[in-house]
Design brief:
Number of strands: 7
Radius of gyration: 14 Å
Number of helices: 5
Distance between the termini: 13 Å
Shape: globular
Structural class: alpha/beta
Strand order of the largest sheet: 3-2-1-6-4-7-5
Length: 151
């Protein structure tokens, strides 16, 4: 059982480091799509991922166009507060690509519009919050997917 966690244009090194650690803990692969808001050599990124970073299955893409060209035939689910279905309604599959946007603005409107039938949200139960922290959102989705596959 493995997922592919995809971060499109991640901006915050500690989120990416924590998601790297999560990818290793969950047996998932981590895909990072440039541009980044930090350098991969940033010691804060490595600190957030602790000494696990060297063990992470990592793939880096120079652009969203490159990512989608290489992975066009893969099963994907996209995550945005603009999704109309919840992450509980996903038919999770092994090797599925779980796509997340950058911390400040999420996925681009073009990506959401192009993939609206596969765009999901994590429900929020308070009107005073716009979104969850990216690392928390990825954790929720990945472990819901693992639970779903283990039933």
């Amino acid at each position: 059982m493995a997922y592919n966690i995809v971060l499109i244009e991640p901006e915050i090194h500690t989120n990416t480091g924590n998601i790297g650690r999560l990818s290793l803990a969950s047996g998932s692969n981590l895909h990072l799509v440039k541009p980044f808001g930090f350098e991969l050599s940033d010691k804060r990124l490595k600190r957030a991922g602790l000494d696990y970073w060297k063990h992470i299955s990592l793939k880096i893409y120079d652009s969203t166009e490159e990512f989608f060209a290489i992975n066009k035939d893969k099963k994907m689910a996209f995550f945005s507060s603009h999704g109309h279905k919840t992450h509980w309604s996903i038919e999770y599959e092994d090797d599925m690509y779980l796509i997340f946007g950058k911390e400040s603005t999420g996925l681009s409107s073009h990506i959401i519009e192009t993939h609206k039938d596969r765009t999901y949200k994590i429900p929020l139960y308070n009107e005073h919050i716009r979104s969850l922290n990216l690392a928390n959102a990825v954790s929720i989705v990945v472990y819901e997917g693992l639970r779903s596959l283990s039933i």
